[in-house]
UniProtKB/TrEMBL annotation:
Family membership noted in the UniProt record: Belongs to the acyltransferase 3 family.
Domain spans labelled Acyltransferase: 21-345
Name of the molecule in the record: Acyltransferase
Location(s), subcellular: Cell membrane
Alphabetically ordered keywords of this record: Acyltransferase, Cell membrane, Membrane, Transferase, Transmembrane, Transmembrane helix
Organism: Deinococcus arenicola
Membrane topology reported for the UniProt record: Multi-pass membrane protein
Length: 362
C-alpha cells in the first residue's frame, strides 16, 4: 500500500515482510477494540455516578468506532486491489477461505464457549432456532457481527467499482455516502424493519463508500492528509462534541432522538477512521521499535479480534474488577495487556502453519 522505501522490514518465519501504513492502521484500531471491550467490562463493576464511572463511560463511548473503521479499511483495500485486477473466481474463493470460514468456525467455538462457561443454557446446543439466530445475525458472541458485516462488504465492493473508477474526491464521497446512509435509515424505519441493522452492511454504507473512494486514489491520500489534516481534525472535534453527549445519554437509557444519535455516530466514526489512517501515514516515517511492534500487532489484528473476548470473560471470572479507583484502573490495564499479548504471541507462534490457516484463514 506504500512504496517499499516507506515500509519497514521484519522477519516472519525466516521470510522478509513489509510493514506498511495499512498495518499501522490495523494496529491502532485493534488497540482501540481491546481497550473498548476492556473498559466495557470494567464499567459494569464501577459505582454509578462516581468520577471513576464517568471516566470509564467517557473512554468507552469515545472508543466506539472500531467496526466502522475496519469496514472502511476493508472497502479501501479491496477496492484498490480489484481496480488493478478483478478475477471473480479467485476473489470470491479467497473471501470464502479468509472470511466465511473463520466466521463460521469461531461462531461455533463461541457458541460452545458460552455454554461451557454458563453464560447460556445447555439446551442452546440442541436448539436449531438458536443456531440459526446466532449464525444469521452474528450473535454467537457480541463481537462476531463484524465478521458477518465484512462478508457483506465483500459482496458489495465489486458492485461499487464503477463508482470507484470515477475517483470522486473524499469530501464529495463523504456527502454522497452520508445521503445514502440517511436514506437507508429512513427506509429501514418506514419499510424494511431489519431487526439487527448493525449486523448488516446497510448500516455502514458511509464507511464503505468513503473507503472505496480512498482506495481508488490511495496514492494521493498522504498528500491529501498533509494538506487537510487540520481541517479534518477540526471537523472530527466538532462532530465529537455533538456525538459524545448523545452517546452518553443513549447508554444511560435517557431519551435520545434516534436519527440524530445515529447521524452523529456515523459522522464521528467516519471522520475518526480517516484520522486514524492519516495518523498511520504520519507514524510510518518513524523507525522506533514501538512503531514496528504496532505494525506487527496490526498484521495479527484478526487473531486478536477473535480471541480476546474469551480472555476478557475468563479474566472477569478469575478476578472481577473491584476496590478503589486505582485498583480498578490497574485491573483494567492488566485485562488489556493479557487480552492483547496472549493472542499476539499465539498468532506469532502459529504464523504460516496449517493450524493458523485452519483457525484464522491466514
Amino acid at each position: 500500500m506504500v512504496p517499499p522505501s516507506e515500509a519497514e522490514a521484519f522477519t516472519k518465519q525466516g521470510k522478509s515482510q513489509k510493514l506498511t501504513a495499512i498495518d499501522l492502521f490495523r494496529g491502532l484500531t485493534i488497540l482501540e477494540v481491546v481497550a473498548h471491550h476492556t473498559s466495557g467490562i470494567v464499567l459494569r463493576y464501577a459505582v454509578p455516578d462516581t468520577l471513576n464511572y464517568w471516566v470509564l463511560e467517557w473512554i468507552n463511548r469515545t472508543l466506539h468506532f472500531a467496526v466502522p473503521a475496519f469496514v472502511f479499511l476493508s472497502a479501501m483495500v479491496l477496492t484498490r486491489s480489484l481496480l488493478k485486477d478483478f478475477n471473480p473466481r479467485r476473489y470470491f474463493l479467497r473471501r470464502a477461505t479468509r472470511g466465511a470460514w473463520p466466521y463460521l468456525l469461531w461462531s461455533v467455538l463461541y457458541i460452545f464457549w458460552y455454554v461451557a462457561t454458563g453464560q447460556r443454557p445447555q439446551e442452546t446446543l440442541s436448539d436449531p432456532a438458536k443456531w440459526s439466530f446466532f449464525l444469521l445475525n452474528g450473535k454467537a458472541s457480541y463481537h462476531l457481527y463484524f465478521l458477518l458485516v465484512a462478508l457483506q462488504v465483500y459482496l458489495i465492493i465489486p458492485l461499487l467499482l464503477p463508482l470507484a473508477r470515477r475517483k470522486l474526491s473524499i469530501p464529495v464521497m463523504l456527502l454522497l455516502g452520508a445521503a445514502v446512509q440517511i436514506v437507508i435509515y429512513l427506509l429501514n424505519r418506514e419499510a424494511l424493519h431489519i431487526p439487527y441493522p448493525a449486523s448488516t452492511v446497510l448500516w455502514y454504507m458511509l464507511p464503505v463508500m468513503v473507503g472505496a473512494a480512498v482506495g481508488a486514489r490511495l496514492d494521493e491520500f498522504p498528500a491529501w492528509w498533509r494538506k487537510y489534516r487540520l481541517a479534518l481534525l477540526a471537523a472530527t472535534a466538532a462532530t465529537y462534541a455533538v456525538y459524545l453527549p448523545l452517546a452518553l445519554a443513549y447508554v444511560r437509557q435517557e431519551g435520545v432522538n434516534p436519527l440524530l444519535y445515529s447521524s452523529a455516530s456515523w459522522a464521528y466514526t467516519m471522520l475518526m477512521a480517516l484520522m486514524v489512517l492519516g495518523l498511520a501515514y504520519s507514524l510510518q516515517r518513524f523507525t522506533a521499535t514501538w512503531r514496528i511492534w504496532l505494525s506487527i500487532i496490526g498484521t495479527f489484528s484478526l487473531q486478536i479480534y477473535l480471541i480476546h473476548p474469551a480472555l476478557l470473560q475468563a479474566l472477569q471470572t478469575m478476578r472481577a474488577p473491584g476496590g478503589d479507583p486505582s485498583s480498578i484502573a490497574l485491573t483494567m490495564v492488566g485485562y488489556f495487556l493479557v487480552a492483547l499479548i496472549i493472542p499476539t504471541v499465539t498468532a506469532l507462534v502459529l504464523v504460516d502453519t496449517r493450524l493458523s490457516k485452519f483457525m484464522f484463514g491466514r
